[in-house]
Write a structure and sequence with these properties.
alpha/beta, Aspartate Aminotransferase, domain 2, Kynureninase, binds pyridoxal-5'-phosphate, Aspartate Aminotransferase, domain 1, single chain, globular, EC 3.7.1.3, hydrolase, 38% helix
Length: 419
């Protein structure tokens, strides 16, 4: 056997052994995945959870068609943002009554950033990561303009030094625990504490963490957090996002979009706004019930799942993939950019390659769906609820085959929308 063949055989054996020991393997049945696809893009759009079609059918045919407007009460539609919020809350370590579901991440971010600035009125700076997802940076700029503040871009690793110099001027520090491009994991505990030591608030964007990692927003004393419903939570395209606000801020929380559903007595249709008590004041307008209830059904995929065990499996999958990359891809121009240390890795592996776009397109054609971020990052998102070690090896071997034969278009057309 050639060394290359024996390396591949060894990896097949490892994958088979790791999958045989996987006590979470049965969870894959909670998703309706096409049989011949290796889906490594759940960090962008989660696949369809098996519980969703029947739940949506019931919402549409029974609750809406038969129950009509009475379903706002009878089917619990009115309470859905708070109920689904609490379900997400369980995944992020939030006790009930602090998380609300609805609107997009961008809207929730605007609310959270603006409300945080209002909670620290004498501090003129908003701090965010220069590598943060664009919407986070744009909205920090927008809130700063609106409130006459300034934005400082500080890498998470540089935060302690920055705060030592200017901490007493910072209203809020806004970061993501996982870099959406590289998959690097930052230490939420250290950064939250650093913000608090400076008297600032800590706001986290959990889009790439909720449902992927065990989180403990209450335990860490996080002030505000947002996240989307369509990545690791698999709530469907454009699923409602969530907003967490720690209970200690509720009585003073002022939201920038005081819509009627956040009123203390919405059906009084009063002339002026009085905020509802608790997180309900973060409601804005009529909630998107079909999407909310699809998300609620999707979240049942987490029923009984221990997130610490899910994290252990996720690290096993990404660690194994990095070993496959190391064994199979070195001569082909791929460089892993995700840290090898497990404690610094989210639930994704990113490889740098000059032809990342062409390779992502070609991989999809051979049944491995990953994605890329311009100009040269190939991302493999790993959701341990439905991914196996064999899937990771299939992705690596197909990537090697494409790379060896240069069997891809080096400059394919730019695709349509991706998030
Ligand atoms: C970290 C992060 N924040 C926000 C968003 C998107 O926000 P929205 O749900 O409003 O499109 C993304 C999308 O990929 C993201 O990665």
């Amino acid at each position: 056997m050639t060394p290359a063949l024996s390396a591949t055989a060894g990896l097949h054996e490892q994958a088979a052994r790791l999958d045989a020991d996987d006590t979470l393997a049965d969870l894959r049945a909670r998703f309706l995945l096409p049989p011949d696809v290796v889906y490594l893009d759940g960090n962008s759009l989660g696949p369809l959870p098996a519980a969703v079609p029947a739940a949506l059918d019931d919402v549409v045919r029974r609750q809406w068609a038969t129950g009509l407007i009475g379903s706002w009460n009878a089917a619990g539609w009115w309470e859905a943002p708070l109920r689904v919020g609490d379900t997400v809350g369980r995944l992020i370590g939030a006790a009930p009554g602090q998380t609300i579901a609805g609107d997009s991440t961008s809207v929730q971010l605007f609310t959270a950033l603006d409300a945080a600035a209002a909670l620290r009125p004498d501090r003129p700076l908003l701090v965010t990561d220069p590598g943060h997802f664009p919407t986070d940076r744009y909205l920090a700029d927008a809130v700063a303009r609106r409130r006459d503040l300034a934005v400082r871009h500080v890498r998470p690793g540089d935060l302690p030094d920055f705060l030592a110099a200017e901490g007493d001027r910072v209203a809020v520090v806004s970061y993501s625990p996982v870099d959406y491009r590289t998959g690097e994991l930052y230490d939420m505990r250290t950064l939250t504490r650093a913000a608090h030591d400076a008297g600032a608030l800590a706001l986290w964007d959990l889009c790439h963490a909720a449902g992927a990692l065990p989180l403990d927003v209450d335990g860490l004393g996080v002030d505000l957090a947002v996240g989307c419903g369509y990545k690791f939570l698999s709530g469907g395209p454009g699923a409602p996002a969530f907003l967490y606000v720690a209970r200690r801020h509720h009585t003073t929380l002022e939201t920038p979009l005081p819509g009627w559903t956040g009123h203390a007595d919405p059906f009084a249709l009063a002339d002026s706004y009085t905020p509802a008590p608790g997180i309900a004041r973060a409601r804005i307008g009529t909630p998107p019930i079909l999407s909310l209830l699809a998300l609620e059904a999707a979240l049942t995929a987490f029923d009984g799942v221990d997130l610490a065990r899910l994290r252990t499996k996720s690290l096993s999958l990404t660690g194994f993939f990095l070993r496959c990359v190391d064994a199979l891809l070195p001569p082909l121009g791929f460089t892993p950019v995700t840290p090898a240390e497990p404690g610094r890795r989210g639930s994704q592996v990113t490889l740098r390659h000059a032809h990342a776009r062409g390779l992502a397109v070609a991989l999809a054609e051979v049944g491995v769906i990953a994605d890329m971020r311009a100009p040269d990052l190939l991302r493999f998102g790993v959701n341990a609820l439905y991914t196996s070690h064999r899937d990771m090896l299939t992705a690596a071997t197909r990537l090697r085959d494409l790379g060896e034969k240069a069997d891809y278009d080096p400059a394919p057309p730019t695709p349509g929308p991706v998030t």
